[in-house]
Design a protein that fits this description.
2 domains, 173 residues, alpha/beta, Glutaredoxin, 5-stranded mixed sheet
């Protein structure tokens, strides 16, 4: 049986293309990793990574000092989550300001210096969790699976939003 040079060349190119495709699929186009849980952030508390939170529920609230609705949402969520023990629920407000000074001035002006804050000026968590606008609040269960997300803040709809969050918390064992 005679094989031509064209057949061998085509077969070689096909194998090279196949190997290149497999390499690209496994090394270049990897699914997102969960490194964002381990990443350390500047913070106003001892905890500096999401992985350090050990409560049954974790709430991440994305905000910025220039975000008008955030001035209402942060105090509201602070009072909403205050009754929960640290074993049941922990909350972190992830700031998106480029300059930490702006965030700190906002917190002081609104008497919120005591809320737990991560300063994420390069928006790495915002990108990791595909947050499209501010404020955005995400609730995670003990396995850190997202169980609910609230985008935006509207005072007139807060009772419904509170009910949604409390229902999500109540559904989990």
């Amino acid at each position: 049986m005679k094989t031509s040079f064209k057949t061998v060349s085509f077969a070689s190119l096909a194998i090279i293309a196949l190997v290149s495709g497999i390499y690209a699929a496994t090394h270049i186009f990897l699914p997102p990793t969960h490194d964002h849980w381990q990443k350390k952030f500047p913070a106003n508390m001892q905890i500096q990574s999401l992985a350090e939170f050990d409560s049954q529920f974790l709430v991440i609230d994305f905000w910025a000092s220039w975000c008008v609705p955030c001035a209402d949402s942060l105090p509201h969520y602070k009072s909403l989550f205050a009754p929960f023990t640290a074993e049941k629920l922990q909350w972190v407000a992830v700031n998106q300001d480029l300059d930490k000074k702006n965030a700190d001035a906002f917190l002081k002006r609104n008497q919120l210096q005591d809320i737990p804050v991560f300063y994420d000026s390069n928006a790495s968590l915002q990108q990791a969790f595909k947050v499209r606008g501010l404020p955005t609040l995400i609730v995670f269960d003990q396995n850190r699976k997202e169980i609910t997300r609230v985008s935006g803040y509207d005072k007139s709809k807060q009772q419904a939003v509170e009910a949604l969050i409390m229902a999500a918390l109540a559904e989990q064992p």
